[in-house]
């Protein structure tokens, strides 16, 4: 939407002003709220950490805990990280906050830099907010221009010449004294209302998405301490997965929002310019200009309505993987990988020399029978591993 055709009366861009206010308030809100929650939860988290270590040590003493040094080290490391993150706002939280809040802005900026508007260069968040504001202002001007003929037409009809006073006070005035409203005035009022309502629905939903994505991200990050500590316990760790899914979704919504809206505002530029030019020439917009404008308003509304479901689908898959990693599956996967490498070496030695059979002199004692059974079991496991590896390679 070029500056020459979109030049409007100089007024405050309240859409950009709301966006700037949200960004300014969000920076201090998240840090202060996060620190307040962490300070109040620190005694509770300390007690839960002690109970967690007691139960884990008891399970380890019973032989039901981790069997490898890697699993134990990963669990202790995870406990230390979770406790340090959930009990205060420090350098780690500041860096994480900057990364999480900056990712949507960085990705959307890269995408919009490749959406070029002829005559104005690449799109940006500022240009999107300005064009959205100009779009609504043009709709308001068009609605006022269309409704103007209705106000001019709706005037009282000419009255008859004055008559001598009628002594009978019950005499009624004739129908000529009533105010008339022609059909064209009603139609103009209807067109004016349709233009304003359609533009208000589209722009209102766009502003709602923009503000909601920012507000939701600040609130979700401020509630992080209570959900991060749930990673320590398997029974309530699903609540952390839900929180993580919402956080990822709120990061994806502004990315899709600015990308979709940048494309859409460029696509509908000709329709909006045609409506603006018709008003600049002093003409009243007719159905030829109104119908395409209403169509693009509803098209934009339905397009923006797909952003939240699309973000939810993408966030669902990402949070499952991240949740599994943070809940300890990474340590088990690393331990299993190292164990698989060790079994691969023993399998190679077994295949080269064949299965080791016990000597005949040792077959009679129970210890020799137990050793023979262990050897056979290991040989069977090594062969199964070899078969599985060959199947994966195929």
TrEMBL record:
InterPro entries: Conjugal_tfr_TrbL/VirB6
One example of a Gene Ontology biological process annotation: protein secretion by the type IV secretion system
UniProt GO cellular component terms: membrane
Domain of life per record: Bacteria
Pfam families: TrbL
Membrane topology (UniProt): Multi-pass membrane protein
This protein's record includes keyword S-adenosyl-L-methionine: no
Main localization category: membrane
Record's keyword annotation contains Transmembrane helix: yes
Transmembrane feature ranges: 34-56, 194-212, 218-240, 252-278, 290-312
Skewed-composition ranges (Low complexity): 357-371
Keywords: Membrane, Transmembrane, Transmembrane helix
Subcellular location: Membrane
UniProt-annotated stretches for the region Disordered: 157-180, 341-373
Assigned protein family: Belongs to the TrbL/VirB6 family.
Protein's name in the database: Conjugal transfer protein TrbL
